[in-house]
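question for whoever is on the cluster today: can someone run the full assembly for these? two chains, 722 residues total. i dont have access anymore since they changed the login thing
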Amino acid sequence: MRNSIKVAKWEIKRNMKNKTFLIGLFISPILFLAFMFIGSLFDDSDNDEPETTTVFVNDQLGVYPALEETVEQGEFNWEMESTELTESEVPDLAGNENTAYIFINDQAVESGTVPVYMSEEIDPFFINQVQVLSTPLQAMKIADLGFSEEEATTLLQGIAFVETIPDTDASEESSAEAGGLDDGSMERLVPGIFAGVIMLSIVFTGMAIFQSASQEKKDKIAEIILSSLTPSELMQGKIIGYFVLGLIQVVVFIGLLFPFVLWKTDIPVIEYLLVPETALLVGIAILSYLMFASIFVGIGATMADVSTAGNFQGMVMMLPFLPFIMIGPVLSDPNGLVAQIGTYIPFTAPGVLIMRLTMLEEWPWLEIIISLAVIIVSIFIFMKLAGKIFKVGILMYGKNATPGEIWKWIRA
Amino acid sequence: METMLTVKNLEKSFKDKQALKGISFEVRKGEIMAILGPNGAGKSTTIRNIMGIMYPDSGSITFHNYSGKDIPRNKIGYLPEERGLYKNVKVMDILLYLADLKDYPTDKAKERILMYLKKFDLEGKENVSVEELSKGMGQKVQFIGSIIHEPELLILDEPFSGLDPVSQEVFKEEIRSLANNGTAILLSSHQMNLVEEMCDRLFLIQRGEKVIYGTLGDVKKQYANFKCTINGRNQLGDLESLPDVLRVEQKGDTTILHLDKDVEPSIWLKNLPDHLVIHELKINRISLHEIFIDIATDKNLLKEEGVVHA
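^ ran it for u. tokens below:
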């Protein structure tokens, strides 16, 4: 263990003195913030007052007040004006912006088509919005035909197909979801996002283990180092060292992110973070690191050079990204089949678990415990296997090991 | 002399190939013991087994003066054949790390590093990044790394490979002086001339088997018979009929006569017939190099002679 700590210290020192690592340490959070910032800029522009559309109505049937009322109900950003211009007198609208002319007359009502002239620049939803005006016109048409008001309403109501959910629980849940970012969900989201950031940061740093293990072979120093300690000490040292480097990455990330969040939003982040749930979520993130770190250190030892990674090694490298495939289904239904399966597959369990626990109000404790057990057992197995692979692989120079060879080392 | 390391009946197989077939030898305090052999003979495999980087199928490796079960890693210095250094670190940092791994005190290590850098003509390079060093400089740094913690047993696998003659000389001197100071040294090499000049005892290995084991003098006496090289055009028959000649090699105008083991050169020379054309004549012992080539190329002629006349 003492030797492992020495290796860990060395890896930390070596990376902290390495310009590439230091730049990477700051670049990724800064990029992240930059995108958030650019995103918020776009949001701002969306919130700018949408431009008002001026709608001139040539009403020859006296429905103008009814139309105005409908528009008001629809909360459209329209400015309606009555006009006496006839169709043939409509000015050229090419140069104008957000202007439309509507002509309501007998002929239009009879044929069921109301001519609308729009300027080129106009709200893209205008032509949809304008359809709303058909209701008062239809009502008038029906009234003309001599139906009573009651009959008219029935006629106008039409028939719609509406999805109905029998289970009350589910409807509650969906309403909670629909509520989106209310206070309660924010309270759960913050620790989740926090754990997610930790998980991603240390898993990404963990991928550097990969590089580090194969670099050991490329630089041919493995045998020199192994004359002073055992392969498993070297392996553990690397895992510990990169874990600390990952934490440093997290600290830098959070350190940069916090002021930004506090400045841009008024979420009481710190208050939300200081809850017991955070501890569990962060625990899951750390377990996730241990699992991927042991996989990476083992696989890294089988490779002569990162750039010559074979298919097998390439696939293993993609493992931490598996939960991303599940983001869609898990977020849309945190208790669905995909989410539950994801909870029990070692590679996806940590990611899926963090996502689910962030989304769910009621934590499925049984599933959490089983999932944690799966993760811990996998870590144990992967560590053992990685130890075996690392021992042989780290001294094999010049070529990448095939899956067949790796299998043989594992059985040895 | 005190024995530091004993290797007994070491056997090791890879797949269906037996790499080591019962290797036994010992390394003593203050001596340089050389393992010689052609490529693939089993030198590095033997050393890796000693270092615990591989585990033998059978046989024992004993480190004397040490009661623990594992290998006394802190007392051993090891320079592997496949060696290198981390690229993007400073010379001082990596040497301190290597010393730290051996539990050697940092301040003492620092002193020794500076001393050795100076000795190896690398003064002022301690803060240079390893990737900026030339290959030879890198080799020197690796060598310093293997002796920085004052090991009792120093194992050097092909220490001279890739070195220019000047650096070879520096290494040779340093290795010799370490031995004189009491370090037990085990080195493998196929640079015979160097080994011949510096080793006390040698172990010649071929295909995982012992061929020769003993002091350099013994080996020479046993295997390295006299040979007589004559420059000049002569009849093969004339030379073959000379007494005590075991074998004659003729290449153009040069003839080499391999002589019997017990030959007294001064007496034997008197047998040369008067009509012999001699532009040049020399009598010397077969060098280690020739023994080595002979074994490596499987001629085994010398060995047979040696066995016959042993």
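summary bc i know u wont read the tokens: Chain B touches chain A at residues 48, 51-53, 73-74, 76-80, 82-89, 93, 97-98, 100-102, 142, 145-146 (CB under 8 Å). Residues 224 and 286 of chain B are 5 Å apart (CA to CA).
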